[in-house]
Amino acid sequence: MKQCIIKRNNIKVQGSGSRSMLFAAGFGCDQNVWNSVAKAFEKDYKIILFDYVGSGNSDLQAYNLNRYSTLDGYAQDVIDVCTALDLNDTIFVGHSVGSMIGMLASLKHPEFFSDLIMLGPSPCYLNDPPTYYGGFEKEQLTGLIDMLEKNYIGWASLFAGTLLNNTDRPEIRSELEDRFCSTDPIIARQFAEATFFSDNRKDLLNVTVPSLILQCSDDIIAPIEVGEYLHHNLPSSTLKVMAATGHCPHMSHPEETVKWIKQYINKPSQTYLQADRGDFF
């Protein structure tokens, strides 16, 4: 069973530390998006990288339409990875929807995780006035998914540019486009629907694992209001508004991303909050 999961999710283990860090990609991406960030932790941590079934070099034959129709199926991938490697008290680092996937996994198995580090997370992308601003109207998301189905290449280019919101890094945009285009369009559409029409707001108060929310500046996908909402509704959470712009700081601003993760995990939580509280609102 262990070897089956390792192959299915294309699990890679590197680094020499005694503690583990598990990195989870966001929508449409594979483990390689973490290359610049994960490398900075290899000396002190055991680094675990994996691909969701349907992404990267995972076993596509294991993809199941029913299982992956909701984020719970992807959360089970995370649980399976932790079980296969016998992980406990692992630092989970997730990007975008990967953050919510890790959060859902922690609700079922909190013992697997010591901390949840979330880059650009969002519990709900839809606006729900007057109490919640997620950034999108339903018609916008429906249009985005329709474009994915009708013109996948055009969608990949448009969405990569939207994610980055950073025109001075064309090489990163090209890398994102390539990753989107390498995913089967049918799988990509189902993952998009599971991502953008999910609503995990009611789950937040049940989370018991401490979390760091890394909120990007000028992020179209997860605006500042979303980060603040998460901070106010996630118990034991810390919010850091980064100088990085766009939605993919691990790719566009890896140095800043590494800096804030290291500061968080290298300090006792109470000390961290007291020392830097003014930066976290």
TrEMBL record:
Pfam families: Abhydrolase_1
Gene3D superfamilies per UniProt: alpha/beta hydrolase
Organism, as annotated: Halalkalibacter okhensis
The family this protein is said to belong to: Belongs to the AB hydrolase superfamily.
Listed InterPro entries: AB_hydrolase_1, AB_hydrolase_fold
Protein name per the record: Sigma factor SigB regulation protein RsbQ
Residues in AB hydrolase-1 domain copies: 22-254
Top-level taxon in the UniProt lineage: Bacteria
